[in-house]
Amino acid sequence: MNIQDIHNLFLQCGSLSIDTRKIEKNSMFFAIKGENFDANTFAKEALDLGALFVVIDNESYFVDERTIVVKNSLETLQELAKFHRSYLGLPIVALTGSNGKTTTKELINVVLSKKFKTKATIGNLNNHIGVPLTLLSFTKETEVGIVEMGANHQKEIEFLCQIAQPDFGYITNFGKAHLEGFGGVEGVIAGKSEMYQYLSANHKTVFINLEDPIQVEKSKGIKSFTFGVKNQNADLNIQQIEANPFVIINYNDFQIESHLIGLYNSNNINAAVAIGKYFEVQEADIKSAIENYIPANNRSQMMQKGSNEIILDAYNANPSSMAVAITNFLQLDKKNKIMILGDMFELGDESLYEHKVIVDSLADQKQALCFLIGKAFFANQVSNENIQFFETFDLFAEYLKTFNFNSNTILIKGSRGMALERSLEYIS
């Protein structure tokens, strides 16, 4: 059975799933092998749960005529997604970057949805499996698709672009993320820039932040739509930005008052405004979309617990995002500030050094009490009355049982694996 035949069967289905726990009636189930399981073993269960067809790559688990046997289920999923993308022919906006991808993707989506029927990556399904699943969620009714692409090694963005075939691209930034897989910052720049190479080779359009010299340099010669702050040469000139703590931007006599915290989120907003302008979304609709966007999922969430004001940014962290979050927090016009910071993962040989840089940056500040949690921070502990170190979260939790939070402003930030949102249980 060729990919077109499989696509014809896919079009008969209402959805596609790789997880029998989330299977829907009349869906197509793909049996994708994981590190600790073989999804082929769930083929019969998927059909019993209501799937119309199952795709497997181990014929030992063939059930009946509803079973499609392929050489490799994952590769077939990717090929099907590429075929489906070409079949639909809709414009696709793709984005990648070290920080801010998901927030920017959500902002672009709310802006463009004011004019178009859009569909975007759900959550952070942005890898070699998530991107195909995103593309296969698009239908004939979808007018613009928005695809987030993540990567932790070189050639990954190139591969995802070959599947998604974006018409437009945006790179949020080039930061110190996934240094272990990319082989350092230069590797990050090379890896993320694979999107520029695809857009250039296929004569597509890139959105460029003129404040970022790497974006400007790497996108030379590509058709572009630009934005910048107080830059008359930009296609979108942002006149003013402020954040205390929420970001406000001014452009073209419009003021947008967002629910996003920190100057580091201003570029995410600016990009969404620029893309909205390019797609000719009405100014008032752009303003309304961004002002009504409320961050969730532990990403720059502002919340109140008792007398305490909390900035919860515990979804992820790397040296670049951690540094700007700390800088922004220390600049806030607030009293009784506390930072709860957790280890940053996937830094490889640079891990201890990058954690030391953060510790050193906190050594002389007097504005906030700092709690640093995790083995990498603990390995860099120093004697400082404003910094306390805890090797594990459990040890920190024991300490928190004796700590009285009262009218504090608190920043919580760390890598996903640290799950620092657990700290909220001890704040009242």
TrEMBL record:
Coiled coil: none annotated. It comes from the Bacteria. Keywords: ATP-binding, Cell cycle, Cell division, Cell shape, Cell wall biogenesis/degradation, Cytoplasm, Ligase, Nucleotide-binding, Peptidoglycan synthesis. Residues 16-84 form the Mur ligase N-terminal catalytic domain. It catalyses: D-alanyl-D-alanine + UDP-N-acetyl-alpha-D-muramoyl-L-alanyl-gamma-D-glutamyl-meso-2,6-diaminopimelate + ATP = UDP-N-acetyl-alpha-D-muramoyl-L-alanyl-gamma-D-glutamyl-meso-2,6-diaminopimeloyl-D-alanyl-D-alanine + ADP + phosphate + H(+). One of its GO terms (molecular function) is ligase activity. Residues 299-416 form the Mur ligase C-terminal domain. Residues 96-275 form the Mur ligase central domain. Pathway: Cell wall biogenesis; peptidoglycan biosynthesis. Its EC number is 6.3.2.10. InterPro entries: Mur-like_cat_sf, Mur_ligase_C, Mur_ligase_C_dom_sf, Mur_ligase_cen, Mur_ligase_N, MurCDEF_CellWall_CoF430Synth, MurE/MurF_N, UDP-N-AcMur_synth. ATP binds at G97, S98, N99, G100, K101, T102, T103. It is found in: Cytoplasm. HAMAP family: MurF. Involved in cell wall formation. Catalyzes the final step in the synthesis of UDP-N-acetylmuramoyl-pentapeptide, the precursor of murein. Belongs to the MurCDEF family. MurF subfamily. This is UDP-N-acetylmuramoyl-tripeptide--D-alanyl-D-alanine ligase. It comes from Flavobacterium chungbukense. The gene is murF.
